[in-house]
Design a protein that fits this description.
mainly alpha, elongated
Length: about 230
Amino acid sequence: MRHIEQHHTQRIGWLRAAVLGANDGIISTSSLVVGVAAAHASAHNVLVAGVAGLVAGAMSMATGEYVSVSSQADSEQADLDREQEELRTDPQAEQQEMADLYVGRGLAPALAAQVAQQLMAHDALGTHAREELGISETIAAKPIQAALASAASFTVGAALPLATILLAPPAGLVWTVSATALLFLAVLGVLAAYVGGSGMLRAAVRVTFWGALALGLTAVVGHFFNVTP
């Protein structure tokens, strides 16, 4: 039977976009809410600002991910087209290029030539994509997947501070939203590290630190733009 292994890098396409979206959703919406609340706006105005931030942020994340990952996909396709043309016009030089690459990685020249010949006979373009360009099915750019994952995770992340607004007393809104946002960020860091197979404590501390910095700065801005008479 074929031995099939699951690696963390197989999740990198959607995991990066999902973590980025959720992190941005929590930080940007919480910071927006804290900044408006620190200016002594009414609870209704704080909630409206938070909802507007959620909608605008989700669309911005989806658009940004789609555009950036599409650009990456276009660059990958351009390189593949170039390789395809080189394989068509000078296959022997391309095979020698692949053999030289394997020699550089430690294979004996005779074995490297044999490996290059057999792999290219099976899938010449796929071999050059993986070995020369570093493009594989696992990490290839997927714009739609990245856009949907980012927008969905941003919405989930932004919904958390909005739920806090509905449940928390208006008097302590700044501190309540800030504390829960930092808690959400720590949990996000732990979950992302667990799914990605990396250190959970370091991830939690890293994301919480930058979240606290963002919340603090926006609270200061809101305080200086106090809307009360």
